[in-house]
Amino acid sequence: MTRKEKSSAIWFNKDPILHSAWLYYQEGLNQTDIAEVLGVSRASVVKYLQQARELGYVQITLDQDRYTQATISSKLKTKFGLDNVLVAPAGDGQTHVRIRLARAGAMYLSHVTKDNDTIGIAWGRTIHELSQAMPRKPLKNVSVLQMIGSMYAQYSFAADEGSSLIANRFEGTGMNLNVPAIVSSARLATELQAEPIVRSHFAVLERCSRAVFVVGHCSPNNSAVRAGIISEQDMETYKQLGATAVICGRFLDAQGQPVITELDQRILGINLAQLRQIPSRIMIGGGPKNHQAVLAGLRGGYVTDLITDHETADFLLENG
Question: Domain 64-319 - what CATH class?
């Protein structure tokens, strides 16, 4: 009897997801061999293996301490006074740096989150990909809050999906901020914030133990523009005022100081002063277009824990 036949003969569980995961991770068969054993296509095997990870049947972990204690991470921690730095490989043309940073962020957030944590989550493509990469880690009394209101956008996900999925991974409670990210007037924003359900949400935000957010560059294809939070003309106005970076819909100059216009009073979401009060602030940022933005976030003191890539890390060490 061949190795494949033995594997198939001893296996009594007919669930193809479990079967595929066992053959791949325990017996070392490749995807083509597994497809032959199960009598399915290779594409089906790829899907089964992905589902095995998403459902928590398989948990793949890296020794995170090795990454946070690497020489380049230690240098960044010392230079910028950070608690932790995780440096992922830069993009290689096949895997976009955003995806790598999202996966690194998922690994890091899962590692550091403890019972009774209250976590504020921004939203966007990177956060959405991070939430999908999160492993299951059942904890007690974890709450996950949306830090910025919602906005219609041409995305394949909703603004509240990231926080909801992360809460699910921890078997915690998800709290969505059910208001627009921006409204038509400062008066309306004030009135909405006075609503009891919205006011209570912001009260919980002020008690967050952790925050997870992305820093972005100031260009017309920034996610804030794509999401409709601001217009290209608004972005140009911010840039003329010296804006270099965007965090949670708020703008910073190159030194990390807030750049404020009347638009800020119309945004329904955490502001920079509130963000700085959260004890653990995990910022994700990298890629060539975001070098200056990451540096601005660090200079402004909005970061305690940084997730970035090697190329950005080199830039920060040379220019910080």
Answer: alpha beta
